[in-house]
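Practice problem: predict the structure.
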Amino acid sequence: MKIRRILATAVAAAVTTPVLLLSAAPAFADTKPSPASTQKPASDEEDEGPTLEELKAAVALAQKEYDEAVVAHDKAAKAFKAVDSADHRLQVAVADAKKAADAAAAAKTAADAELAKAEKALAELPVDATEEQKTAATAAVTAARKTADEATAAKTAADTEYTEADTARDEALIAAAQLEELTRKVKETAAEKLAEAKEELEFFEEIGEDCKEDNAVKVALSGPKSITVGTSAVFSLRVTNTTDRTLDAVEAYVGAAALATEEDEDGYFKQFITIEWTGAGNPHWTDTADSFDAVDVGELAKGATADMKLRLTLDSKTPVGPGATFAVGAYENDDETCGIGKTYANAHFDILAAKTDKPEPKPTPSETTATPTPAPTTGGNNTTQQGGSSNTPIRGTLAATGANDHLNQIGLAAGAAVALGAGAMFVVRRRKAGANV
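Answer:
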């Protein structure tokens, strides 16, 4: 549904709102901020995000850079392959130099053998050898030594030429390999940038501006006031079509969490709580994580109401303290009209420690005087602790409310932001998982 996509646009406002509310919770009973339409962000914080044209331009630029990177990498890969081939001039030069070096080495070996033979003949001349024989043997040694010296010099030159050719070939191969590797990395980076740019554009186009915020789908929650760690509890979710037409596909996005208190410094959720749901057309308990927090109501006739059951399960690690479950409705019709609920529902409860067999120590009487808790005042948009719906738009606007144990800790309007923000975060998770939404 498009509704799952458009929910993600509210993440920033919805998720950051509770942080501000937590810091100002004690003042909620006496303070009613201006409506959202009159609250403007600081000039240095305004960020409307990229336009469709800018995203398309980014894709075009990323595509151009990727295409150029592909060409450069292909060219570099071909260059490396060419240098590494046997018919490349550097490879031919190395092969020729190797042959010359081998030939020079063989010539030197032969010359050294002739010199050794001549020297042996001279040394083995008989004592009665004539002067002519001695002269001839000495001349043979001199000639053989000259030939051997020339062969040694030739071999040295050939070895040097072979070394230089081999070095030039290796350096060319290394340079070509480095260029191929560099262009490959540039290509991979360009591919990642292109994929990101396309994803941003696709996400923007999917979200669009088609779905509106309205009160077509009204949700209400009710349930127990406390749940013990390690147990489950069932809440009731009622979804109502308030329009004068049938809504073709209705969903309710639900969530539940152990909430932070004033003493907690980080975040406003301590731990998410597992939710399962069941209702008409879905007789078995279904984990909302499998449907990414969407309770599938289906078609809902005009003025009709659908009742669902939500089962919250607290594992052994669930922290003791305040908790809440929340919901927001959404719909999409076959004619592509769609909407997100302006109002939300929540139900607060206490998370109690698991019972143990060990007797608890009796508290020591204290002489301090308890301060009476002020009676809660009623605001125009207040939502009861047991559940219900609020008329507060999910735009970060704070409803006027009285002080009670839960609302002083998290703020009533945090429920709206949490409801939408949690659903949106799961929608984003769904998209990243590659689901078809």
